[in-house]
Design goal:
homodimer, about 700 residues, mainly beta, Nuclear Transport Factor 2, Chain: A, Beta-galactosidase, Chain A, domain 5, 9-stranded antiparallel beta sheet, 9 helices, 35 strands, copper ion binding (chains A, B), TPQ (chains A, B), Cu_amine_oxidase_N3 (chains A, B), signal (chains A, B), primary methylamine oxidase activity (chains A, B)
């Protein structure tokens, strides 16, 4: 047999990606590209030079792309698609930024034009004065705040009384939430919690329980202090997760390391600036300080017509709501809104090549504005890789032909776009997985460290009352909590105008009597589909565990040859928890959208953030539930799916000191979108694909 | 940098596996090993020589291992584990077979000792006369039956009237189910449906609709015939799925083929006969004509003590219930019990290396008894492979230390044991995935061909009444149906005696008033865990969509150092549908267990098959619901979990002519089983793992 050598194409691929990026960068950015460092710098100059905001100091809390109007972007994309093969580009759209800055104890909203980054201009200015809530906390003010306690006498005394060395103490900033009243909304405050970091990287496992501090973030001063109760600080032993610090490596056998090799190269992934083209998919990967990964303009090639068809205009994680379930003074307020309060993009850190993402991954860097407005570079923030999981795309073995066995199998290769958000103690691995079948699968994997409470308990037998958690180690209670990851998905199924269809599974009785419409058979029951087309937003709220059925987004104007409406449907894969907090409880009012998994709203460019724009100390006066209460028409409109993937997390000892990944997922699956299986004609792998003789050398 | 060459270890690994198998085969079989060809031959001789069954012809419908009593197997396994390192083996246990044979219109049950395969002996004999139901259909009688229609004059006329050439016609045998009355239960009959296979391998897509035939399988004669209605036979065009027959390969870009290379070899997977050892796992892989893969004696190593701890005694798919939802004469009875009527092992065919399983897979062959009792060899029936999906086992990035970013990541490698069952038109990919975290994940992936109905409709606009399905092509309705895959999982969590615990999530109000037990905070609500320990089987039935919570199997006699009961919990990942048929409907009576996803029963070695032993034409007088109705005690007992993974399948055009894989899954996850994360000390991949320079050549 011929012994053909294939060179591993990985280095070439990365080079190619880099070149493409450069080639694209030489002309103008895609209208949905995140702000470049130069553009962020220009935004900063314009804001600081503007007479509209006189007060100083001025701090930047959010700087992001103010994307052009949807029709303009769609027109650009259509032109881009048409002209791409001729290597000419459509005219650039204006480049604008949306800014939230704090100055003079007020939140300022500015729109800045940076189309020409050497002469940026402020287009509009408003003060967010009337409504409650504050912008995302900056990283810098959190660093400043945690420097306060070691110099604060009452805290020094609290630490001394616990026999802890101040050098070992590390503090963190926790949003206060909102619990009624007006006072809290007038001051931008946060709580601070402190931990003992000596002897472990896992300081979350060693809380200085019982101490509550409130810091005024605008004044940068501790304004409230209480040392209510003193519990033992859990010991450091057994808490560290770092290699070499967690004890000797496992003695037993372990899986062998593996590397994916693409003998024919990975020419399948083309990265052109922020646009990714792979197999039948094309999409734009953006980045935002608050949302993290922003996916836009996802379209899929119709194999029968060769036409590229739209699926998703824009999708991102709108919020991550994490309420804890202990009502005591030190815990009741812990009801985090990670995107709005902390910023998912701000808390995304460089991915580790080879472990966070496999060896065949390519990476995107990210840029955000620091508190001073200057661009901050974050390397390897998003990775893209072809996934070879050993799955099957479709198959059949036919044993029905006498003396003949027919087997046809097509292996599955998918494309994953991954970001990891380490929002304090928890790590969220957020995957977008594109399948050649036309599906998009969203996977949320939880890992990282538990948020634990110091306790006198050292054994479960001592616990007589509700401890609100699991005793995972001596003096260490892991508190019950939820995770609600809410996606904003502006589906444009084969076009902008869509409807939301609920196909409920409904049991019917068969009378057996044709004169009453029955079938003359002894079958007594069957189910059929009761189709409901949602008219208004009230019809768009669905508790997916309450009734079985399929939920679809269809384009009533686009039908298959058979006359079925082109659609995509939502398929949940676990993690369908919804909030069970009382509707009148304050955290539930702030995140009231978490009571059902599905909401559908008409597209509105200002409706992005499920708990409202100003999530910190929000009161529930803005956000998804408020918008949806207007009960606008959603039939035959440009509509948006809001899907919340939820978990009730009862911790177990295995989750300590670092939690093995727990995943939930959902899928958007083409459903009468194509005339038939779009990968029916997928290429059969060459005979050699399973008989490769591969060898590797360390570079 | 040093340029070290690693040879790909794949060929060596397969050789090693083969050698180990041989080495083990030289002594005696493991007591749970499936019957060997020699043992099947011995069973046949003993049965045919026995004077207990005089009637002829005698046909074998089931021949399987009659496994030794559980305490004997556990004692063997304990001795085996203790002696393994000294290379001596424990004493063999008796080898016995359970046989169901048909002779003289009766079902005979025989137990045959084959400990010495040269002198086998029948230990017991019984006639299944009283109860209803019949054994699994043999492949041979189905082949014989489908040869009848082309010689049956009324059918010849029906085919002629439809303008179809008889050479193109192919028929298949469909179980009749049971729809009341006694008559049906006295004769072993089946229905036959015929299709037009000319011009396509996908004959299921071209039904000769309107014709119903009943064949008496013991007489091997057509006993009923009706040609009720004539609809157009759907056209062949667009139905074939074979490469080269489905049209030109896709013109657009496609994913690049990939190969997993294990630069340090795959020494992690050790196969010793039917025992697999990998990382911290050890288990036995068996095979059964009815169940397919049978997994036994799964145990996991405790990293802190070095002790191997039991998790699962025995697990397999007990039944696959697939009811269709059209009450008309030609469809009402299609309510398949694929395991009991057809046999999952009988309908598992050779896996395709490189596509069904990746290039690093090893394979097990399988043997079953043909209708004549002779052993039939089925190659590559089960595969085992390490899965490198690009997943993360655990990770954390810590940004809380000033001026320092800590990131620790452990990539996930899992072990998959896969079988594919092609039960007629559908293909079920059945995966057991073992994780180093101690989890076992069960994945069911549906693919294959839809069962469709001929119809005059050529466009959805013509459909005015309930069509019971989706028009997926001209004259082709894909009928609504369900898939219920029921697992029998005899969990032995850290020992034989377990309890079933339901930890329900329960909302509590906080009064805010300490005098009434409230916390003096403004938080108004929280949830806590209401623990219920199931006392009897009635408490063991759970509709998992009705109330949120965790379902656990715990060993009340084994506690962690913290005092928590050692447990495993059930985590569902989609596909949680339960049957919505009326309780009094006949198919629902036969598969009444399908109304809830979870049942828990005390272990009873005879309770294996959810719809009862004799599933063909069963009436619901045997099976899981009947056993459970005895309401036996399940607290602190040896208990069994029955979990049904279910899907309501509304077909869409993409599912035609072959369906892209749709998966559902569930996980058994250690929950206070270990003292802490068992892979905390997992090895960090070497620096080189992501910087391999690999090349491949075709062998």
């Amino acid at each position: 047999m011929a012994r053909t050598q294939f060179a591993a194409m990985l280095p070439l691929f990365l080079l190619l990606a880099a070149l493409c990026g450069t080639a694209s960068g030489a002309s103008h950015p895609h209208p949905l590209d995140p702000l470049s460092p130069a553009e962020i710098t220009a935004v900063r100059s314009a804001v600081l030079a503007s007479p509209l905001v006189a007060a100083r100091p001025l701090t930047f809390h959010y700087v992001g792309l103010d994307e052009p109007d949807k029709p303009d972007v769609l027109a650009y994309a259509a032109r881009h698609s048409a002209t791409r093969r001729r290597m000419v580009e459509p005219d650039a759209l204006p480049r604008r930024a949306f800014v939230i800055a704090r100055a003079g104890r007020a939140s300022h909203e500015l729109r800045v034009d940076v189309t020409n980054s050497s002469s940026p201009s402020v287009l509009s200015h408003a003060v967010h004065a009337a409504g409650p809530g504050f912008p995302t906390l900056t990283l810098e003010e959190q660093f400043d705040a945690v420097a306060l306690p070691p110099k604060y006498a009452p805290f020094v005394e609290s630490v001394r009384r616990r026999g802890v060395a101040m050098d070992d103490v590390l503090c963190a900033v926790f949003p206060v939430g909102w619990f009624g009243g007006e006072a809290s909304a007038s001051k931008r405050v946060a709580k601070m919690l402190c931990f003992v970091a000596g002897g472990t990287a896992n300081f979350y496992a060693r809380p200085i329980e019982g101490v509550t501090m409130v810091v005024d973030l605008d004044e940068m001063a501790i304004v409230e202090y209480r040392d209510r109760v003193r519990y033992p600080v859990p010991k450091a032993e057994g808490t560290d997760y770092r290699a070499g610090k967690a004890g000797a490596p496992l003695a037993g056998p372990e899986p062998a390391p593996g590397v994916v090799v693409q003998p024919e190269g990975s020419s399948g992934v083309h990265i052109d600036g922020h646009v990714v083209r792979w197999a039948n998919w094309e999409f734009h990967v953006g980045f935002d300080m608050r949302a993290g990964t922003v996916m836009s303009l996802a379209s899929v090639l119709d194999p029968d017509t060769g036409v590229r068809r739209r699926v998703l205009y824009r999708g991102f994680v709108s919020e991550v709501f994490v309420p804890y379930m202990d009502p005591v003074e030190e815990w009741y307020y812990r009801t985090f809104l990670d995107a709005g309060e902390y910023g998912l993009g701000l808390w995304a850190f460089p991915l580790q090549p080879g472990t966070d993402c496999p060896s065949n991954a390519a990476y995107f860097d990210g840029y955000y504005a620091g508190q001073d407005g200057k661009p901050v570079h974050n390397e390897n923030m998003i990775c893209v890789f072809e996934r070879y999981a050993g799955d099957v795309a479709w198959r059949h073995t036919e044993a029905g032909f006498p003396g003949q066995l027919i087997t046809e199998v097509r292996p599955d290769v998918t494309l994953v776009v991954r970001m990891v958000v380490s929002a304090g103690n928890y790590d969220y691995i957020l995957d977008w997985e594109f399948k050649t079948s036309g599906s998009i699968r969203f996977v949320v994997s939880l890992t990282g460290l538990l948020e634990v409470k110091g306790t006198p308990y050292t054994h479960a037998d001592q616990i007589k009352a509700d401890a609100h958690g699991t005793l995972v180690a001596e003096n260490t209670l892991a508190i019950y909590h939820d995770h609600y990851v809410t996606y904003h998905l502006d589906l444009d199924v084969d076009g902008t105008t869509n409807s939301f269809v609920k196909n409920f599974i409904t049991t019917k009785r068969n009378s057996g009597n044709p004169t009453t419409g029955g079938a003359p058979t002894p079958r007594r029951s069957y189910w059929t589909v009761r189709r409901e087309v949602a008219e208004t937003e009230a019809d768009g709220r669905v508790d997916i565990d309450s009734k079985p059925g399929d939920l679809l987004f269809v384009n009533p104007g686009k039908k298959t040859r058979m006359g079925n409406e082109a659609g995509y449907r939502l398929v949940s894969s676990g993690a369908t928890a919804a909030s069970v907090l009382a509707a009148d409880d304050f955290p539930q009012r702030r995140a009231s959208y978490s009571r059902t998994q599905v909401w559908v709203t008409p597209y509105n460019r200002s409706e992005k953030w499920a708990p409202g724009v100003y999530a910190d100390q929000s009161t529930g006066e803005d956000g998804l539930a408020v918008w949806s209460a207007r009960n606008r028409r959603i039939r035959n409109e440009d509509i948006v799916l809001w899907y919340t993937l939820g978990l009730h997390h009862i911790p177990y000892q295995e989750d300590f000191p670092v939690m093995p990944t727990l995943s939930g997922a959902f899928e958007l699956r083409p459903s009468n979108f194509f005339e038939r299986n779009p990968i029916l004609r997928a290429r059969v792998p060459s005979d050699g694909a399973h008989s490769q003789n591969c060898s590797c050398s360390v570079r």
